[in-house]
TrEMBL record:
Organism: Rhodopila globiformis (Rhodopseudomonas globiformis)
Protein name: Acetate kinase
Any GO MF annotation of the entry: magnesium ion binding
Cited InterPro entries: Ac/propionate_kinase (IPR004372), Aliphatic_acid_kin_short-chain (IPR000890), Aliphatic_acid_kinase_CS (IPR023865), ATPase_NBD (IPR043129)
Family membership noted in the UniProt record: Belongs to the acetokinase family.
PROSITE patterns with a match to the protein in the record: ACETATE_KINASE_1, ACETATE_KINASE_2
Record pathway: Metabolic intermediate biosynthesis; acetyl-CoA biosynthesis; acetyl-CoA from acetate: step 1/2
Keywords, ordered alphabetically: ATP-binding, Cytoplasm, Kinase, Magnesium, Metal-binding, Nucleotide-binding, Transferase
Superkingdom of origin organism: Bacteria
Binding positions (substrate): 92
Cofactor binding note from Swiss-Prot or TrEMBL: Mg(2+). Can also accept Mn(2+).
EC main group: transferase
Length: 407
């Protein structure tokens, strides 16, 4: 029997999952899928890594009771993963705060500590924790590992972590954490394999997807990132504003805008969707549209990305390489070319033929700084962390194995 890890990425209305076969130093994805419409008739879909659809069904409504859904999911996996035993569930948890700077095996105490961080990420953390509780109820003997989006950025300098606010607020947790850490960590790992010299240098990684951010890395470690206290900061995104003058928020509050409307505006109605006047949040839609507003939204996205790559390069004292990843970064040659042109002053010279191919090194022979496309895989990173955390916990006498299994 081969060991496998179930990876869970739980959101407000859907749960994404993947199952990875656990090797010694690498994992292979066996199946990926999604549960959507959790509160109605849950829609369960799954595909193999090769893209073959192996499930597409509606389950009986459970009134949103996730423990029933996770029970059904694990039963389905039992029947469809011949020759594999689930070793653990690894969860993406958005916030580890200042305490959790590495993946951790979940115990009741860990879960309480993570619940204390809900005010820092009210839109995501509750769903992440609900999934852990539901899995514990469905399968009390399956160890669970929490992997944090913030952890990779934990080594930032004091200046990179602060807002220019009174110190007491910083002590209360109002500080810049950074997100997309599991993606950046995966990229750092891949870079060490495919471009070891570059991995030791000064690199800006551009995670450009529906959510978008940059990470300044030196020697594979995060030095700074464009996301801060929440995943709202930094680059414009599909529907999120990115950086915005806090004075705008005060103005809107003065105008009588309530908290919920404001939150909806900043997270759901802004970014590319807002900039394009509602044409779309999807980069493909905007690139394919002939309308001026769509072109202006794309211009803004490129402009702000180039501007912040400059800021990240300044944090690093120069630039040895730029890495593109996530949906837009991996698939849009046009956006890469435009960002590349904006970064010519940093020594980036993208080769059009290599860029059109869209994998590996895409910079020209004369480029002073390298440009790469490296696909990210957060699920793999979570699976690798889960295996590692289980090994560490198994050899740690301070962790009671009873507690370890019963969340
Ligand atoms: P992600 O959140 O990483 O899944 O990325 C989603 C984003 O990638 C959306 O804005 C998509 O429009 C964008 N995307 C995916 N494929 C392409 C493509 N071929 N060209 C441009 N954008 C793309």
């Amino acid at each position: 029997m081969d060991d496998a890890i179930l990876v869970i990425n739980a959101g407000s209305s859907s749960v994404k999952f993947a199952v990875a076969e656990a090797g010694d130093h690498a994992v292979t994805t066996l199946v990926k899928g999604k549960l959507t419409r959790l509160d109605q008739a849950p829609h369960f879909t799954a595909t193999t890594d090769a893209g073959e659809v192996v499930a597409d069904t509606f389950w009986e409504p459970t009134g949103g009771r996730q423990e029933i859904l996770f029970g059904k999911l694990v039963d389905w996996l039992d029947h469809h993963l011949d020759g594999h035993t689930l070793l653990a569930a690894g969860h993406r948890v958005v916030h580890g705060g200042t305490r959790f700077t590495a993946p951790v095996v979940v115990t009741p105490r860990v879960l309480d500590d993570l619940a204390d961080l809900i005010p820092l990420a009210p839109l995501h953390q509750p769903h992440n924790l609900e999934a852990i509780r539901a899995m514990a109820a469905a399968h009390p003997h399956l160890p669970q590992v929490a992997c944090f989006d913030t952890a990779f950025h934990a080594g930032h300098s004091d200046a990179a972590m602060r807002f220019a606010l009174p110190r007491a607020l910083h002590e209360d947790g109002v500080r810049r954490y950074g997100f997309h850490g599991l993606s950046y960590e995966f990229i750092a790992r891949q870079m060490a394999r495919v471009a070891p010299d570059l991995a030791r240098g000064r690199v800006v990684v551009a995670h450009l997807g529906n959510g978008a951010s940059l990470c300044a890395m030196f020697n594979g470690r995060s030095v700074d990132s464009t996301m801060g206290f929440t995943a709202l900061d930094g680059l414009p995104m599909g529907t999120r504003t990115g950086s915005i003058d806090a004075g705008v928020i005060l103005y809107l509050l003065d105008q009588g805008m309530g908290h919920e409307t404001l939150q909806h505006l900043l997270y759901e109605q802004s970014g590319l969707l807002g900039l394009s006047g509602g044409i779309g949040s999807d980069m493909r839609t905007l690139l394919g549209s002939g309308r001026l507003e769509a072109a202006q939204a794309v211009d803004y996205f490129v402009y702000r990305t180039v501007r912040d790559i400059g800021a990240m390069a300044a944090c690093l004292g120069g630039l040895d390489g730029l890495v593109f990843t996530a949906g837009i970064g991996e698939r849009s040659a046009e956006i890469r070319a435009r960002i590349g042109r904006g970064c010519a002053w940093l020594g980036i010279d993208i080769d059009p033929v290599a860029n059109a191919r869209g994998t590996g090194c895409i910079s020209g022979a004369m480029s002073r700084a390298a440009a790469w496309v490296i696909p990210t895989d957060e699920e793999q990173m979570i699976a690798l962390h889960a295996i590692e955390a289980l090994k560490t916990a198994a050899s740690d006498d301070r962790i009671s194995k009873e507690e370890f299994f019963h969340v």
